[in-house]
Amino acid sequence: MASSPETLHDRLGELSDLGAAGALVGWDRETVMPPGGAEGHGEILATLERLAHERLADPGLGRLLEAATQAGGQDAAIARVVRRDHDRATRIPAELTAEIARTTAAALPAWMEARRDADFARFRPHLERQVELARAVAACFPEAAHPYDALLEDYEPGATTAQLRTVFAQLEAGLVPLVEAIAARPAPAPLPGPFPEAAQRVLALEVAAAMGFDAEHWRMDDAVHPFASSITPSDVRVTSRWDEQDLSGLLAVMHEVGHGLYEAGVDPALARTTLGSGVSMGIHESQSRLWENQVGRSLPFWRHWHPRARELFPSLAGLSAEDLHRALNVVHPTLIRVEADEATYSLHVILRFELEVALVEGTLAVADLPAAWNDRMRELLGIEVPDDAHGCLQDVHWAHGSIGYFPTYALGNVVAAQLWEAARRDLPGLDDALAAGDCAPLLGWLREHVHRHGRLLDPPDLVERAAGGPLDPAPLLAYLEDKYGALYGLPR
Ligand code: ZN
Question: How far is the CA of 123 from the centre of ligand 1 (A)?
């Protein structure tokens, strides 16, 4: 039998490689795998995950972590983070993890059929089981102040239900009247298309290159659901999909390249340590959203890119940078989260957070979920849900058992605005640089304050240091009020 690696770094290198192999198989599945490969890929991924879980929970790793903590220095800082992963892997019984995987395997096809036929009853028993299992996971951490806190830990270490309730209440109080005020104003005309896929791809690759996409270390492919994946920090892959009616394909590329830049910018000293990637889903989403929205939907950005866009899309002839900016910032309440604009997006997330917390607390029964969803959509966005396919069946997350994931989308918006405000303070020439097509100052700022830390700083620490204060929805509200106030001529 081969001997096990002996040092902490050997162990972490092995864990990191198992994760990278899983990412590679996952990327292949979403991009180039022939349909018949699904079953085989599922087995490969399950094996890699089982091996990684065993290696992470191994008592031998626990001893090496103990020794590294005693030794101090950088290894102690690394050990602090890995210790948490190790404890979590140890405390959730293997049988519970396997039961979640089995439940998910059955829930996914049931969810697809239920969504196709707008038939919640077909999905209901699967969701009931997933909620039960989520509560069983939470019960493994009795010290958590709220059972939902234990679930959040998987996606957003350090976030708490109490803190999210406060932040989201402030967001709701600012966003609901803003969306109402915008709805009372005439909507800007949409961009005149078409936007042929080939031309959109050319523009997207040029923009991506300006952001930092470099063909030596990156690639771009098509996928049904766009995503970014880094196999290693020097092998980053993004995917996109194209819609010839609008420029959503370009903005999706900016979003995914934003995720990719985060992964590519981690300090090389953290590579192969399990700390060499983004720290949380929320901080990750702050990076993608900042490039997609604060940059890609800004006037300075379009001052530089609109001549090129007009060259590539003859239908834009005669439109100014201001026209493009206006058309890319239409606000309109919709039923579907993934299609939501910057002003309404977080409201979709707040709704899911409240319902998830109620399901986990047991104050909402799964059977009552559709009615609760529809009531809240009416209150938050003023729209009627015609059927559950356009309501509580629209997202895959609950079929996956990913309860606690949704809040990270809104945290991404909140943190993106906090970082944007801080970057603008530090870089007074930022607008001029973007208007000259120069993204380097912004990327440099993000590398210094966010990317290089990998998982070394917990999200609350990272936000505190980078933005100069704790999680705060005020910069997001101020940014949206400024932007839409000017675009829609709202009374100030
Ligand atoms: Zn994203």
Answer: 26
Please say whether the beta carbons of 358 and 392 come within 8 A: no
Reply yes or no on whether 356 is catalytic.
Answer: no
Residue 211 vs residues 256, 397, 407, 444: alpha-carbon distances, Å: 11, 30, 27, 11
> What digits encode the pLDDT tens for the residues 246-268?
999 999 999 999 999 999 999 99
Q: How far apart are CA 454 and CA 444, in angstroms?
A: 15
Q: Across the strands, what pairs with 218?
A: 236
Query: 255 C-alpha vs ligand 1 centroid, how far in Å?
Result: 6
Choose the catalytic residue: 256, 354, 356, 421: 256
d(CA 384, CA 259): 34
Cis peptide before 157 (omega within 30 of 0): no
pLDDT of 2 above 60: no
How many alpha carbons lie under 13 Å from residue 378 in its C-beta half-sphere? 9
8 Å CB contact between 331 and 490: no
How far apart (Å, rounded) are the C-alpha atoms in residues 13 and 156? Answer: 24
**Residue 279 alpha carbon to ligand 1 centre in Å:** 14
By the 8 A CB rule, do 56 and 97 touch? no
Cα–Cα distance for residue pair 311/307, rounded to 1 Å? 6
Identify the pLDDT of residue 94: 86
CA dihedral 465, 281, 223, 440 (to 10 degrees): 0
For residue 412, report the distance from its CA to the centre of ligand 1, in Å: 9
pLDDT for residue 4: 55
Based on its alpha-carbon atoms, the radius of gyration of the chain, rounded to whole angstroms, reads 23
| The pair of three-digit structure tokens given for residue 118, joined into one six-digit string | 């707008």
Give the model confidence (pLDDT) of 164-194 as tens digits.
Answer: 999 999 999 999 999 999 999 998 888 999 9
**Residue 67 alpha carbon to ligand 1 centre in Å:** 37
Model pLDDT, residue 1:
42
Is the predicted pLDDT of residue 388 greater than 70, yes or no?
Answer: yes
Closest alpha carbon to 359 in 147, 197, 216, 85: 147
Does this model's pTM top 0.85? My answer is yes
